[in-house]
Amino acid sequence: SDKIYAQRFFVNEYGNLFHAMPGQLTVRVEYANGLRNPWTIIRLRSENPYTIIRCGMHEFRTQTHNRGGMNPVWNEEFSMGICVTNQLDLMLYDYGWFGSDDELGRCTIDLLDVRKKGQEIVVAPLLNKRGTKCGTIQISLSFACTTGTNDEQIE
User: What's this model's pTM, rounded to 2 decimal places?
Assistant: First the structure.
C-alpha cells in the first residue's frame, strides 16, 4: 500500500513557496583570510579570532585561535538538524583578554544551493559594522535530506 507523508512548505521573504526538507546540515569552518580589526591602532598580528555560527535556534562557536592573526585556520565541524531554515549567519570576533570581544566581521550564507546540491564550498566576504569588507571566510557545507521524524532537535 502507498504511504502518504505530510508535505511541509514554507514561504520565504520574497513570497516564493519552497518544500521544507528536514535534514542534517554539516558546517566546516575552515579558515579566514585578510582579517582587519578596526579597533587595533597598531597591527601586531595579535588577533585571537573565533567564529560564532547561527542557524535557526542552533548556535556554535569555534575555538579561539590564539595569535591567529589575520589568517586564522580552524577546520572545525558542526552538525545540526534543520527543516525550514535557509540562512546561516557567521560572526567573527577578536577575543579580548582584558575587556569585551571586538567584532571583526559577519556574513550570511543562503542554504538553498547546498540543499539542492548536497555539498558546497563557500568563500564569503566579511563585512564590518560600517558595511566595509574586512576579510573573507571559507566554509564547507553538506546537507543530507532525512525522511520521517528526526530524533535530533530540528529548527
Answer: 0.79
**Exposure of 102 by Cβ count < 10 A (0-12 exposed, 13-18 middle, 19+ buried)?**
middle
What's CA 92's distance to the chain center, in Å?
10
Query: Who contacts 80 (Cβ-Cβ below 8 Å, separation ≥6)?
Result: 24, 25, 27, 55, 56, 58, 60, 152, 155
- Which are the contacts of 77, defined by CB distance < 8 A and separation ≥ 6? 26, 27, 28, 29
Residue 70 has pLDDT above 80, yes or no: yes
Cell numbers that stand for 113 in this block: 544551493
Q: Confidence class of residue 100 from pLDDT cuts 50, 70 and 90?
A: confident
**pLDDT at 44 > cutoff 60:** no
What pLDDT score was predicted for residue 13?
53
Q: How many CB atoms lie within 10 A of CB 93?
A: 21
Q: What is the DSSP string of 63-107?
A: PP-TT-TTS-EEEEEEEEEESS--EEEEEEEE--SSSPPEEEEEE
Q: How far apart are CA 66 and CA 68, in angstroms?
A: 5
Joined grid coordinates for residue 55: 542557524
CB 105 within 8 A of CB 34: no
